[in-house]
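User: Okay, second chain of the day. Same drill as before: sequence in, structure tokens out.
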Amino acid sequence: MQTANTLSVLRSAVDGLRAGGGAIALVPTMGALHEGHLTLVREAKRRADHVVASIFVNPRQFGPKEDFRAYPRQFARDAALLEAEGVALLWAPEPSEVYPAGYATNVSVAGASEGLCGADRPGHFDGVATVVLKLFNQVRPDMAFFGEKDWQQLAVIRRMARDLDLTQPHVEAIHAVPVVREADGLAMSSRNAYLSAEQRRAAAALPAAMRGAIAAGATPDAMATLRDRLAGAGFDRVDYAELRDGDSLAPLESAAPCARLFVAARIGGTRLIDNMPLSGE
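Assistant: Same drill. Structure tokens below.
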């Protein structure tokens, strides 16, 4: 596996992959890799001839009170995992390489970025859209892979790709990969590492409460029960528990075939998010 830290090395390496023929897939990450990330890599490898993964902790998607400095960084471990999965090229730039002095451009996606996590994290999805567009322009992949756990992020990226005509030679297809869960149902996330042993046990109540609400028809009473179950399990706060259209992310008043349940809840200093379709996973 080749590692590139500068744009000039990246472009040369990508040119080399293209010269060999075949499709190139991009798997963007912020590192602190877990089985969810590796599932993305495996799916990319199944569909493409060459996989390029990125590790970049993007400062523009962290708010002033968020955990940019504390975000787990374990580059050597992550690189070894990617190499073992057969990744051809690792793009691991410094922030100054992505946002050089004088950088002044921002990408904002209305609609999909509003509400849910967008309400609690102003500017977050602007940072996501900006860095993903830059990654697409830097790597120029044929396809890219994202996890469904961050469904709102996925919706923002899909909207941006449609609106900005990101077709060949940029990205032919954006592939969504289903949520990868722990044995107790908790969605895999790099932020799970912040949980104490007691908090980690309590966190299993999140997917369980969501499944219970869905089984009860996701009615207002079922949503109130979901909140009560999380409070009883030790969660400190529920930021939101909402039904949204899975495609447009428009709010829904009641269950519908296209609906998904979105929840964000805090336990200790950690904010956990999850989503599930009402039709079942």
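The two ends are 35 Å apart (CA to CA).

User: Thanks, on to the next one.
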